[in-house]
Design a protein that fits this description.
Elements: H1 3-12, H2 17-35, E1 38-41, H3 43-58, E2 70-74, H4 101-108, E3 112-117, H5 151-158, E4 164-169, H6 175-181, E5 184-187, E6 207-212, H7 215-225, E7 256-260, H8 261-265, H9 269-284, E8 288-292, H10 297-315, H11 328-331, H12 334-347, H13 349-352, H14 356-373, E9 379-383, H15 398-402, H16 409-414, E10 418-426, E11 429-437, H17 442-454
Length: 456
């Protein structure tokens, strides 16, 4: 049963919202100690929400578009009365005093919040090993990382602990773990979803988005959370489609998709073989395949991290231990401290022009090049992550860790929508197919993923 089928089952009374919650509670209680996807649970409120929804359905009252579906929320997105720590000792006692806009929207449509999900500390990582609460296991490849920074979000979906999870993506933090864990993850167009209530890592790059086991879960979530928010300055007032209307599509006739040789060149051969088979399925469904080139692949990671360091340093100045929490530099992990120190150095007046401002110029070059690549095509398709996830605890140099992001940071630098859908496996480990589109062409990605899923 996919997510939309379950929703319809709850609305029709075949299944109750309480049964849905209780089913997930059972799975979480059995498996979370080993997987470590959830770091805080909200069972009592979740059951109360479910009972209220069931009562409305029994009385013939109208219920919301997400009635009875169970959500997990990444630990850097505010949920009132739950500890929102960003998986850091800095905020281990910080209780959310309000709901992020996306959380408000989910609750307003009768979605149920079952708990808070593990992540890399302050989203600074690609493995979910930097969490103060310990690493998260990859349920699809036990002993290996689930990816990051939204590793708990992907692991919870892969382990069937919730229907949909909500993560954040700054340079691949939704798509990277979606690829490693064999689930679907979606980073919307920058500004399509409100970031109000998100503990930002890099404000010009961050975007909130959903993960699910199938495309219907992504479509349902986007219908609710992709919305203009007058309280958040980056959100766009746009004509949002109904993403669920295209879930039955089986043809990509008239759609042009592109592969990029430079993306293939940086990716392991076995991953490329698996991804190529997935791309062929899109072609078999009627898509026209063309090739594009991208001359700035080597520029992407340094540009991304220079911007990330400076914006993260700025964002962390509020964690000074005066009003709440601890002073971040005194308690944070090595990767967070590394980014703060480098960001502080680059932000100094004498270096700002040499590094940060140059990175902003490079970002413009990358964005312009991506715009050109997408000018005459609907989608760019290729691998999500260029290598398989390493074993938990393996010693990696920072640049080895950052290399996981080489194909995903591009969408954040350009502000375009991008998603990862399971393409297949290499040595029993999932790998993802990444699909990218023009700004606000999010619907085309949903369509391609839906056709891919419908022709499995």
């Amino acid at each position: 049963m996919n997510v939309i089928e379950k929703l319809n089952s709850i609305k029709s009374g075949e299944m109750t919202a309480k049964e849905n919650v209780e089913g997930f509670i059972k799975v979480i209680d059995e498996n979370n100690e080993e997987i470590n996807a959830f770091i805080e649970l909200n069972y009592e409120n979740a059951l109360k929400q479910a009972e209220a929804i069931d009562e409305k359905i029994a009385n013939g009252e109208e219920v919301g578009a997400l009635a009875g579906l169970v959500f997990g929320i990444k630990a850097n997105i505010n949920v009132e009365d739950l500890i929102i720590s960003a998986a850091s000792k800095t905020l281990e006692d910080y209780i959310g005093s309000y709901n992020a806009t996306v959380v408000e929207e989910i609750l307003s449509e009768d979605g149920i919040i079952i708990g808070i999900l593990n992540m890399d500390e302050f989203a600074a990582g690609s493995s979910t090993e930097t969490s103060y609460y310990g690493p998260t296991q990859n349920p699809a490849a036990m002993g290996r990382i689930p990816g990051g920074s939204s590793g708990g979000c992907a692991a919870a979906i892969a382990a069937e602990m919730c229907d949909i999870s909500i993560g954040s993506d700054t340079g691949g933090s939704i798509r990277n773990p979606a690829s490693h864990c064999g689930v679907v993850g979606f980073k919307p167009t920058y500004g399509a979803v409100s970031r109000q209530g998100l503990l930002d890592l890099s404000m010009s790059l961050d975007q909130i988005g959903p993960l699910a086991n199938d495309v219907s879960g992504i479509a349902l979530a986007l219908n609710t959370i992709a919305k203009y928010d007058e309280t958040e300055c980056t959100t766009l007032d746009w004509e949002k489609p109904d993403f669920t209307e295209i879930l039955g599509e089986t043809s990509l006739e008239g759609m042009k998709i592109a592969v990029c040789q430079e993306f293939i060149d940086v990716t392991d051969d076995e991953i490329n073989k698996t991804v190529n088979k997935a791309i062929q399925k899109l072609v078999d469904a009627g898509a026209e395949l063309v090739e594009v080139s991208f001359d700035y692949i080597d520029l992407c990671l340094p540009t991304y991290y220079l911007i990330n360091y400076v914006e993260f340093f700025s964002a962390t100045r509020k964690y000074d231990g005066r009003d709440y929490g601890s002073r971040i530099e005194e308690v944070c992990g090595d990767e967070v401290l590394r980014r703060i120190k480098i960001g502080s150095h680059i932000a100094e007046a004498e270096f700002s022009g040499k590094y940060y401002k140059q990175a902003l110029k490079a970002r413009s070059v990358i964005r312009n090049e991506i715009t050109k690549m997408l000018e005459n095509v609907d989608l760019i398709v290729g691998p999500t992550v260029p290598k398989l996830p390493h074993e938990i605890g393996a010693e990696l140099e920072p640049m080895e860790m950052y290399a996981y992001d080489v194909l995903t940071v591009i969408a954040n630098l350009a502000g375009i929508p991008a998603a990862s859908i399971p393409a297949g496996e290499v040595d029993g480990i999932p790998v993802g197919l990444q699909i990218q589109a023009k700004p606000l062409d999010d619907e085309k990605i949903i369509k391609a993923m839906s056709v891919f899923e419908n022709t499995q």
